[in-house]
Amino acid sequence: MKTLLIYLILLLSFPSSASSFVLNNVLLPDFETRQLTPVNVEIANGKIKQIVDVHINLHHLDTRDGQGKVMMPALLDMHSHSMGNSSLDRSDYQYIGIRGTANAMLYAGVHGWLDLYSKEKAILRYRERQFPLQRDEAFVFAAGPCFTAPKGHCDTGDTRLISSPEQAINELRDLSKAKPNVVKIVFDTPSKRPTVDKPTLKAFLSEAKRLNIKSVVHVGSWEDVRVATEFGANAVTHLPWQKMPDDLPLLMKQQGTAFIPTVAIIAELLFLHNPSPEELSASVLSIPMTGALVKEKLLKDYPVMERHKNHYDWLAKLKAENAFSEMENALLKLDQAGVDILVGSDAANFAMFQGVGFHREMFFLQKMGMSPWDIVAGATHKAYQFLDLDWGLAVGAPAHFTLQNKTIFDDLSQSTQVSDIYLYGRKVHREPLLRYAKPGFFQYTKLFLGFEK
């Protein structure tokens, strides 16, 4: 009797179990033919039950009109940090924690994100709880700690420091008990800070492969990309702004190494560097979603003007070196070679706000010349493959999707104008998500005291 009562309570607490309806007149994207197909879709118990031609009538007590919008498969941000949003001079920080990030992502129409370094126990414990089964929030997939050399990049506490191949193997084996979705290591030779040496990197990547855990390498130069690729990295992250060697795209394609470029960090700051009215109106500051998710006081620290001397001078130097053009050339060559380009914002950094940053990454990838079809494929099916997820708009898959304007595959700047968000087939009510995504005093106090639930 007690067991039956518990089962009934759990059943009633999972709204996904009752999400059954018909959604007529939507456009289904086919990434092979690059066509939008008009269909009707039936959702049952939080999953896709059937997809039929738009001329075949589906009947249900709950029948909804998709109004010819695109039924977009769930979007995944493949590089973020579950912390919050930063002002430019770091004098102000909007800390929102893991749950706040989960709410901000879903509010923005992003169904999940790959956290590539947060507090190890907190992020992995939160991931284990699988809260989207119970309530409206995005899925978190996590690396846990960042593996780096002592005093190296991301040695800010609560990470894993390694100085030898033996340490790399032992630390990785210990972490593997928590079953991280991926593991991340820093190999950044141009940095003024220490980084792991080649033998340590090689041992780390070999052990990750033996343990069957995908690896992501933070890099700082094209030579770092080459070494990580040759040593068997599953992905590298961050696109250098120097000229790329001509042979690298083919090498990465042959090795099956994916790229998470995070171009929007530099591109947005270049946009915001002493901007023209046109640049300002096309920047993250002019997007309604930004104002909804980021507190006004923090946004007032942007754009980048002469009062931000260090950032201002650094960006002026990048402009003089034609950094954007070099990034653009490299990205297009990688894409043309067939390297998998995954979409990651590196949110929690300057001007990369949680949820919104993902859309800005897609915007700048298109601005650099990538096809919207390739970009969305990298944000959906290629991301699913990397994380071993059985997602997508197919019969039997969980009904995670958004509805977008039908011109989305012409202009990805429209992606922030998401109209409806579905999680396990239940329509998400967006406004309540702001309680955690943009916390007031009470919620912030709970976060400060360490309450994430």
Automatic annotation (TrEMBL):
Alphabetical list of InterPro entries matching this protein: Amidohydro-rel, Metal-dep_hydrolase_composite, Metal_Hydrolase, Metallo-dep_Hydrolase
PANTHER family: ALPHA-D-RIBOSE 1-METHYLPHOSPHONATE 5-TRIPHOSPHATE DIPHOSPHATASE
Organism name: Alishewanella longhuensis
Transmembrane regions listed in the UniProt entry: none
KW Protease (keyword) present: no
Leader sequence residues: 1-18
Sorted UniProt keywords: Signal
Protein name per Swiss-Prot or TrEMBL: Amidohydrolase-related domain-containing protein
Superkingdom classification of source: Bacteria
One Pfam family named in its UniProt record: Amidohydro_1
